[in-house]
Amino acid sequence: MALSIHTNYSALITQSSLSKTNSALGTNQQRLSTGFRINSAADDAAGLQIATRLNAQSRGMDVAMRNTSDAVSLLQTAEGAFNEMTDIVQRMKDLATQAANDTNSDEDRTALQAEFDELQAELVNIRDNTKYAGENLFAAGGKFLAPMTFQIGASSTEQLSLDVSTEVGDLTTAITGLAAETLDDAANSATAMDSLEDALDDIGALRAQFGANINRLNHTANNLANMRDNTEMAKGRIMDADFARESANMTKNSMLMQSGISMLRQAGQMPGMVMSLLG
């Protein structure tokens, strides 16, 4: 290397090296302070794009999990109401079966009819006043009187459709019709038994549909949790800083900065050495 007053080659090389080391040290410090390997698109453009897509998918699955839990709560509310209806209709059938026996006196049948009527009124009350989040479920305009769609995934195609409007309408008709049933003699009591049997079938069919969909939604939630966890792990491998590596690199670059500054000081003395040749 030639000695020159105008061009201090050693100083230029050292300054260039220091600039690179300082940039690398700044990157190490930024990653350690934020916890992210990628803090701007310049750090890893392709990685940022992939991580952004993974993050959108993960957040969508988080919301879908909440949607699924809400759907389960809605269906469990409805199924709980039908469970109570089942108990009531079974008791009404017991009363009708008892009234169909001619060992009963008129006074006995009057007492049986009184309980029967109160139970039928409670069926109507449950139908009209079962709500979820303030919304009617079975009364006029209720949620289950029209097809329902539950968003159970991060994409628009991941939906669960449920339509029990016809079945709920049939049950409503059956419950209303029970008000006309009387237990004043054996023949009418036997007719009431048949009507109650039909009502039990209607309730059982609805409970089966709700139960099947609740089970499906629980499996959906489990699968969403699995997918979300693995998506988060994939995103983390791209975005998250490796603290051990960055700490080691920061120590290395700090040492390089110190040695570079020392070398730059020595390189600055080179022109003076040239002047010594002229002495």
From TrEMBL:
Pfam families named in the record: Flagellin_C, Flagellin_N
Annotated keywords: Bacterial flagellum, Cell projection, Cilium, Flagellum, Secreted
Subcellular location: Secreted; Bacterial flagellum
Function: Flagellin is the subunit protein which polymerizes to form the filaments of bacterial flagella.
Domain Flagellin N-terminal, first and last residues per copy: 5-140
Keyword check for Iron-sulfur: no
InterPro entries: Flagellin (IPR001492), Flagellin_C (IPR046358), Flagellin_C_sub2 (IPR042187), Flagellin_N (IPR001029), lat_flg_LafA (IPR054892)
Organism expressing this protein natively: Halopseudomonas phragmitis
Family: Belongs to the bacterial flagellin family.
Xref: SUPFAM superfamilies: Phase 1 flagellin
Domain Flagellin C-terminal stretches: 193-278
Protein name: Flagellin
Example of a GO cellular component annotation carried by this entry: bacterial-type flagellum
Single GO MF annotation: structural molecule activity
Keyword Secreted attributed: yes
Organism domain of life: Bacteria
